[in-house]
Automatic annotation (TrEMBL):
One of its GO terms (cellular component) is cytoplasm. It comes from Nitrosomonas communis. This is N-acetylmuramoyl-L-alanine amidase. InterPro entries: Amidase/PGRP_sf (IPR036505), Amidase_domain (IPR002502), Caspase-like_dom_sf (IPR029030), Metacaspase (IPR050452), Pept_C14_caspase (IPR011600). GO terms for molecular function: cysteine-type endopeptidase activity; N-acetylmuramoyl-L-alanine amidase activity.
Length: 928
């Protein structure tokens, strides 16, 4: 099955075009529109799958018709193999030797409908021009569909002569293909993105996924109502189930799903599983995967999600993971085990309004405390419900008196498959939260059925009782389980987690204190339970060498490798990139240095309201008890510095930021600054800042930066925390007003380069210092400046001009050498300002701002792989947590991230007294 389809940026497409092994000569470029779906009906990957489904199942073609589809946002979806002739127009499709490259544009571009403009137009022109340049074709080699048929395609509002003229202009200006890091709105730094080589490798694999061949000679896209209805039906919201997945998406998951309800195969709900479905997995799908694997043995991984997870949530978890496992050569099988627990808890809590809760004192809901929640959950029969969930896990893997559970049947099929394919497969298991309880029954059942062994078992925040684990699984380690690893939070993070902002600890603590029948029964995922048990300490090697198990504590110091985990919530482990990457490396037997397809996290390890928010309807009284006058700052904590200030009251003021990033300098472009600014903005939002103001590219003129920065500073008030972040070029300029001190070589101003700097419109340290002088007392102003000479950008000392030897084509310094023409333009610009400054440096002791710089004044600030190297490391430190972290400690940790042989040194510039102040915290906290 060819889906999922690969989505690329325009830059990635350019590199792919350069690297693709063409065996077919391209002699023309064919241009279509989809007609329907139009812009409003476009639903991303679903739309591409809908077209593919219609083209293959209804029309009988071997693949989707087009080689490329251009989305409204300008991104590019890959289609059929570029060495296969397309289905474009009757008699014009070519063959395996020569023919057109054909693309479609999402939209209806007939008069009065969608407009081809913006990023979609830009990508369209570049797709045409790059293909033509590669194959030395003239601009006129472009062919509209309407020139080959009676259709209006690609839309009668699009003028052929105009498109050809624009493409001709591009022919002379297109540069060498290069790729920049993707814009990951939910991930603050480049470690969360795929390596560029991996992106291109995935794309090449995608384009070689089906055999090349030729369609019937009369094959042609119709762009008619029948096609439109078929595609739109596939992508219609009406076809989505509670999980949000369409039938097509669910069908793609069929070879990987086992749906259970109270231990038996589920015969109702959004997804149903029969014995026939299980037979198909082991008799059809796994043998195919075994034939295709490039590994010595095919890893088969059994995943069990948490026990309070409803069916729709379990399906979404599977849909989120499965493609990633397959990319890494691992065949995943997901147990979607419905317990009814979340529905039961929700019903009991709703009845609490009329029942048990009424008996509590009136003020019981006026002060939400963990003890109250624990007692309330017990009063509402929480232990009985939790026991029912555990019974569901047990029943799934049982076989009594001829009645066997669904997981038992799966175990039987595993045993048969392993016996039939000895030495060609290996088994692994992953359980998240109560999924560890499920596996404490499933793994022994499989081993009792003579499955050879499980090479590895991995528990994420395991919710199983210690005594259950010991009774069911511990003795199997070394006797059926080769490796066991646990990924769970340190005690401080467990206590800083929450359940829907009502219970102020993690779900494991709620289980420990309220859901288990025995109060405070030791739970395997709690640090205190492990450390207080001598057998577990020995098993997991806590102070004891040569252990057979291992615990990886979150938050780890490393963010990649076999021992990385950065989740700070109980529910976040299965979406934590470092955790998932660690599990994959352990399954594949790879070292820290070995590359894999890294997992792209959705939450980036930040705090989220997990299980309870989506699955349980808390009584209104409890919801209202969440203290609306308290703003909980979602600032992550550090394992080195436990949080003491994670709750900030309204009186501490506002959190605001101005983020500036400039790539498209007319005369000296950069490639990672916009991504930096967006990454900083996203990080600030996750910390609880108001929506940051972004000034990107041409919006970041000198006038705009001054206006916005002045407004940020002057509108602040005591208790506020404000941030100025800048990524772009820096430079040094003649000191026009002679305010800098030092010898002749030091008579220069530090400057940042706004978008319009070429006309002399620099923003020098005097300008910024004048703005910062207006800062009200009691405001914490912090700057993160990622450019050369950033250390002294706000006012004081200067340095010498650095040299920069560019070692790699994808890295460059963020520094402009001021030519004589630029210096003259600068002098002229300053004279025309009609004012002179007499800012006198008093040294760092007079600084009221805190400035984190990318480098020393004598160094170069580098960008590589689509991000500033300072930004990558600074945001990595922030991801680990900042509560209790001082400004000086932040500087030290960022410096450490550069390693033992750094080519630039991050530096803190501030008054000596500010070094010990907490990073990005209100000054009022330290003045009380």
């Amino acid at each position: 099955m060819p889906v999922p389809f690969k989505q690329l940026t325009c830059e990635e497409y350019a590199v792919l075009l350069d690297k693709f092994p063409f065996t077919r000569k391209i002699n023309a470029v064919h241009m279509h529109h989809t007609w329907k779906p139009d812009h409003a009906q476009y639903k991303g990957h679903e739309t591409i799958v809908g077209m593919w489904r219609y083209h293959t199942e209804t029309k009988g073609w071997q693949d989707i018709a087009q080689h490329i589809t251009i989305a409204p946002d300008g991104s590019i979806w890959l289609g059929r193999n570029w060495n296969s002739p397309p289905v474009s127009a009757k008699g014009h499709n070519g063959n395996l030797i020569a023919g057109p490259l054909m693309f479609g544009i999402i939209g209806n571009f007939d008069y009065g409908n969608d407009k081809l403009e913006g990023e979609q137009l830009k990508t369209t022109l570049e797709v045409i021009a790059r293909v033509q340049k590669k194959f030395q074709l003239a601009p006129e080699s472009l062919v509209f569909h309407n020139a080959m048929s009676t259709k209006t395609c690609p839309g009668n509002s699009i003028n052929f002569a105009d498109i050809v003229s624009r493409v001709r202009e591009l022919h002379s200006s297109l540069g060498k293909a290069r790729v920049f890091a993707r814009d990951l709105s939910d991930a603050p730094f480049v470690e969360s993105a795929l390596e560029i080589s991996q992106v291109i490798k995935e794309a090449l694999d995608s384009l070689s996924r089906v055999p090349t061949g030729e369609e019937p000679a009369d094959a042609e896209l119709s762009h008619d109502e029948a096609e439109a209805r078929a595609v739109l039906q596939t992508t219609s919201e009406a076809t989505r189930g509670p999980s949000g997945l369409t039938p097509v998406m669910l069908e793609m998951l069929r070879p990987h799903l086992v749906n259970l309800n109270m231990g038996e195969f589920s015969s109702e709900g959004e997804w149903k599983t029969t014995r026939g479905d299980i037979d198909a997995i082991f008799e059809e799908h796994l043998p195919k995967a075994l034939d295709k694997t490039q590994l010595m043995k095919l890893p088969i991984m059994f995943f069990a999600h948490g026990g309070l997870v409803k069916e729709s949530a379990g399906l979404k978890i599977a849909q989120k993971h499965i493609d990633w496992w397959l990319q890494n050569g691992i065949y995943p099988i997901y147990f979607i085990w419905e317990t009814g627990a979340f529905e039961t808890i929700a019903q009991l809590l709703r009845r609490a309004r009329e029942g048990a809760i009424r008996a509590l004192p009136r003020d019981a809901f006026d002060h939400t405390t963990d003890l109250l929640i624990e007692e309330t959950v017990r009063a509402l029969q929480g232990p009985r419900i939790w026991s029912g969930m555990k019974l569901s896990a047990q029943l799934a893997s049982s076989s009594n008196a001829g009645s066997e559970g669904g997981a038992w049947y799966v175990a039987e099929k595993i045993s048969q498959f392993c016996n039939a394919h000895k030495d060609k497969v290996e088994l692994h298991a992953v359980g998240h939260s109560a999924g560890s309880i499920f596996h404490c029954y499933f793994i022994p059942a499989a081993l009792d059925l003579e499955v050879p062994y499980f090479k590895s078992v991995h528990f994420l925040a395991p919710a199983v009782r210690v005594d259950t684990f010991k009774a069911k699984l511990a003795d199997r380690i070394g006797k059926g389980i080769n490796q066991l690893s646990i990924f769970t939070m340190n005690k401080s993070f467990e206590q800083n987690d929450n359940c829907a902002m009502v219970y102020r600890k993690s779900l494991l603590y709620l289980i420990y204190s309220a859901l288990e029948a025995e109060r405070k029964a030791p739970i395997l995922g709690l640090e205190e339970s492990i450390r207080s048990d001598s057998e577990l300490k020995k098993l997991f090697g806590l102070g004891i060498p040569n252990a057979s198990g291992e615990v990886i504590w979150s938050v780890s110091l490393s963010t990649q490798g076999r021992n990385a985990s950065t989740s700070q919530t109980h529910g976040g482990f299965d979406d934590d990139g470092p955790t998932m990457g660690s599990v994959a490396r352990r399954i594949l037997g790879k070292s820290d240095a070995d590359s894999i397809f890294e997992y792209i996290t959705e939450q980036s390890g930040m705090r989220k309201a997990e299980l309870w928010n989506d699955q349980v309807d808390w009584p209104e009284q409890i919801q209202l008890a969440s203290a609306p006058d308290i703003v909980v700052k979602p600032l992550s904590t550090s394992s080195m510095t436990p949080s003491t200030t994670s709750i900030i009251t309204k009186e501490t003021g506002r959190y605001r930021a101005l983020c500036v990033g400039i790539n498209r300098y007319p005369t000296a472009p950069l490639f990672g600054c916009v991504a930096d600014a967006q990454a900083w903005a996203n990080a600030f939002k996750r910390m609880g800042f108001e929506e940051p103001l972004l000034l990107l590219d041409e919006k970041a003129s000198r006038a705009n930066i001054i206006e916005r920065l002045t407004s940020l500073v002057t509108s602040s008030r005591p208790g506020d925390v404000i941030v100025f972040q800048y990524a772009g070029h820096g430079t040094q300029l003649p000191d026009v007003n002679r305010d800098e001190l030092g010898g002749d070589s030091a008579n220069e101003d530090e400057a940042i380069c706004p978008y319009d700097f070429a006309g002399g419109a620099f923003l020098i340290d005097d300008d910024i210092g004048e703005i910062f002088n207006q800062l009200p007392s009691g405001v914490n102003l912090t700057c993160f400046i990622d450019c050369c000479h950033s250390g002294t950008i706000s006012r004081f000392a200067v340095g010498t001009t650095p040299g920069a030897n560019v070692a790699d084509a994808d890295e460059r310094p963020r520094f402009i050498v001021a030519s004589d023409e630029l210096k003259q333009a600068h002098r002229h610009f300053r004279q025309n300002l009609n004012r002179r400054r007499s800012l006198t440096s008093g040294g760092p002791s007079l600084m009221r701002e805190v400035v984190f710089s990318a480098c020393l004044s004598s160094e170069v600030a580098w960008e590589s792989d689509g991000h500033g190297e300072f930004t990558v490391r600074a945001l990595r430190v922030l991801q680990f947590g900042m509560d209790g972290l001082s400004n000086e400690q932040f500087e030290q940790r960022v410096t450490a991230e550069f390693g033992s042989t750094p080519r630039q040194h991050a530096r803190l510039y501030c008054a000596p007294s500010a070094k010990a102040l907490h990073l990005l915290q209100p000054l009022s906290i330290f003045n009380r």
